[in-house]
Amino acid sequence: MGKNLKTLLFGIFLGLNLVASSAHADQPDPNDERSVLDKETFNEEVHPYERSISRAAAGFRASIHDVPSSGALGDLYQIYGEWVMPFQTLGLFSLGGSLGIYALHEPQTTFPYPDYQNFFPGLYLRYQLAFKKYQPVIPTAAIEVNYYRFGLPNNNESATGTVVSPSFGVFINMGWLDPLTAKDAYESINLSRAYLTLEVKPATFNTEFFKFSGTFWTFGVRLEFQ
């Protein structure tokens, strides 16, 4: 009977040790430098890229003729860079500059040459309605000032003018859709945010020589860096 009691006590002791070891293995190691994204569970408030603050941005956007609706202005291609202002709490303001090309193939134009092209610089002030860290979708609005100069190659005829127009849209956070890639991009190149962008911009250019009027629907990619 004494031998059986010793065996029982040894079994209980061994079982308790196994349970304790298993519970300890499930606890996170505070010295583990790996991201929680490398584990089975993902706590969105842990990894630094989700708490990072963007300081600058760069992107590309374009519009397609008659997309998404008939009559939409198209053939616009634009690159841009932005400085995100620091010390903000109620959303994000940023200042940006852009350079684009606008190839005219629009039925709204009165110009007789469909192959006119226009390289145009621009400046703008942007606001993002960002009210939480690593927001999945961010509404945005901007005031843009673009300088247009239309002219035919090897021809002295041209039309110039400054167009001030608003734009409205949304930024869709690709890191929220793919957190593993977002983690790697942050650790390798300090990429704090990556967005797919959709913006709507009405524009009117009207001179005696040339005019157009309509709406640009631009689609693009935006990258923000810490």
Write the layout of secondary structure elements.
Layout: H1 2-26, E1 56-63, E2 76-84, E3 92-103, E4 117-128, E5 137-151, E6 158-173, H2 174-177, H3 179-189, E7 191-206, E8 211-225
Antiparallel strand pairs: 1-2, 1-8, 2-3, 3-4, 4-5, 5-6, 6-7, 7-8
How much of the residues is beta strand, in percent? over 45%
State the shape.
elongated
| Gross CATH architecture | Beta Barrel
Please count the beta strands (DSSP E, at least 2 residues each). 8
Number of domains: 1
H and E order = HEEEEEEHHEE
Structural class: alpha+beta
Helix content: 10-25%
Q: Could you name the CATH topology? A: Porin
- Could you give the distance between the termini? 71 Å
- Return residue spans where pLDDT drops below 50 for at least 5 consecutive residues: 18-42
- Could you report the average pLDDT, rounded to the nearest whole number? 76
The strand order across the widest sheet is 1-2-3-4-5-6-7-8
Largest sheet data: 8 strands, antiparallel, barrel
Q: So what's the CATH class?
A: Mainly Beta
Q: How much is the radius of gyration in Å?
A: 28 Å
Counting H and I runs of at least 4 residues, what is the number of helices?
Answer: 3
